[in-house]
Amino acid sequence: MGERTNIPLAVRMAWAKVRKGIRRAIGQEEGWPPVGFVCWGSLRRTRPVSRSFGFDRGKPIDRFFLEAFLEKHAEDIQGRVLEVGDREYTMRFGGSRVIRSEVLHVGTGNPHATIVGRLDTGEGLDWGSYDCLILTQTLHCIYDIASAVRNVERLLRPEGVALVSLPGISQISRYDAERWGDYWRVTPAAATKLFEVAFGRESVSVESYGNPMTAAAFLFGLVVKDVPSWALRTQDPDYPLLICLRAMKTRTA
Known about the structure:
Layout: H1 9-26, H2 61-72, E1 79-84, H3 88-94, E2 98-105, E3 115-116, E4 130-136, H4 145-155, E5 156-167, H5 174-177, H6 188-199, E6 204-209, H7 212-219, H8 229-232, E7 242-248
Parallel strand pairs: 1-2, 1-4, 2-3, 4-5
Antiparallel strand pairs: 5-7, 6-7
Helix pairs in contact: 4-6
């Protein structure tokens, strides 16, 4: 049953019902299908469907999770806000709550940037100035990630909030690797420790998104419309595709 691409749909549907009945009868969910019976279908390939995380096909799966996280914490995006790269999420989720929007970039040449600076060294940064920092898919491109996290805390005003995302199960970003580097993939435990050291244990909350299906789909470059909605709603902490954090600077920090 390994090669079934030419089998009529009606036969495949009947076989699917048989498999479901067998699983129900023997109470087996984990470990199904048996060895040698896996049907790879469109994923019987060693090259991805997209090498650009799916951006050329639609909304990437990690962006779906990231935007759900930002929407959940949209009330934090207010006052003076700093975002890395551009101000897309500042405007989309902050709206009228944003008094001043600024954009950080590591080098010249970004037309959206209002500040050129480095999170690892602190060069060009204005300490204690922001009510919110939106830092998405950035820290893994900084080799001295611990120093960068400490400086994230230094950028915030008391009670200011950093909304951060980090890749877990992910391909290498060739675009980033060839410009400033792509160094890290983290676990929720590592992300938690990094931010607790800088912000304090009570000031950090961490969420992870992903499961075996969404993680595999993301690695192949599939997008949100390629995956059933129920899979996007199901999270398995052992398969962290994306790690998101909310960290607040305390008054005494």
